[in-house]
Design goal:
The structure is a single chain. By secondary structure, the protein is α+β, with helices and mostly antiparallel strands. Among the domains are: 56 residues, no CATH class; 78 residues, no CATH class. 35% of the residues lie in helices and 13% in strands. The chain contains eight helices and seven strands; from the N terminus they run αααββαααββααβββ. The strands form three sheets. A three-stranded antiparallel beta sheet has the order 4-6-5, covered by helices on one side. It has a two-stranded antiparallel sheet with strand order 1-2. Strands 3-7 form a two-stranded antiparallel sheet. 1% of the residues are buried. About 9% of the residues have low confidence. This is Peptidase M16 middle/third domain-containing protein. InterPro entries: Metalloenz_LuxS/M16, Peptidase_M16, Peptidase_M16_M.
Length: 225
């Protein structure tokens, strides 16, 4: 199967870098009166009022009348000449494009050292040993309760809800992934109790490393964190 698919594939030739201008100029050269055709769509009566000569044909599918005429030689000659339309002109050079592209190099090693010293003096940090880092990582922050009171956004909509968005951090952090999964499980456990108490209709949209929870209240929306 792979061999048959491989045999049918063909290499796609890559366009040379910077060929956009050449393609654009080639397209402009093809925009000639004698290389194309114009379509005028009107009612037959309106066309007859302007040009009565010629024989009208009909499209075999819909019976729409149409007429084909060649472009006048004088029009082709006029179109091939110099343009006299003042609105068609090349734009002026962009004055905002810099002409001096040489990069000015400067030694910033001393400035970086000064900045690091200034930051250290402002923060007034204290060096922490490796064992202290492990102990500090085990400290649990004190608990807190927050109360929000809000009205339902749309009283006329039965599924109107309050969106509660939690962002824990980077997905690449294994500790945060585990913590966010634990939070999602904690939020999912009391759903049945909330339903029995009539506080919320449902809780949905939990995930990690970030969780978006939608709460549809059955009573005035007042919930705790």
């Amino acid at each position: 199967m792979c061999n048959s698919c491989r045999s049918s594939l063909k290499a796609d030739p890559q366009s040379p870098v910077g060929a956009g201008e050449a393609e654009f100029r080639k397209t402009l050269e093809d925009l000639k009166v004698n290389e194309g055709h114009a379509v005028l769509m009107r009612r037959k009566e309106e066309h007859d009022a302007v040009e009565k000569a010629g024989e009208w044909r009909k499209v075999p599918w819909y019976g729409t009348p149409y007429k084909v005429e060649t472009v006048d030689d004088e029009l082709v000659k006029t179109a091939a000449g110099a343009s006299t339309i003042p609105d068609l002109h090349l734009p002026h050079p962009n004055e905002l494009i810099p002409q001096n592209l040489d990069v000015e190099k400067r030694d910033v090693a001393k400035d970086a050292i000064k900045l690091a010293k200034a930051a250290k003096e402002i923060v007034d940090g204290i060096a922490v040993s490796g064992s202290d880092i492990v102990d500090l990582g085990r400290i649990v922050p004190p608990g807190s309760n927050y109360v929000w009171q809000s009205t339902v956004p749309n009283l006329n909509e039965a599924n109107s809800s309050l969106s509660y968005y939690l962002h824990f951090g980077s997905y690449n952090d294994r500790h945060l992934r585990a913590a966010s999964a634990l939070v999602a499980q904690i939020l999912a456990e009391p759903v049945d109790d909330l339903l029995s108490d009539g506080k919320f209709e449902f809780v949905q949209g939990k995930g990690y490393p970030e969780a978006a929870i939608e709460l549809v209240p059955a009573v005035p929306p007042r919930y705790y964190e």
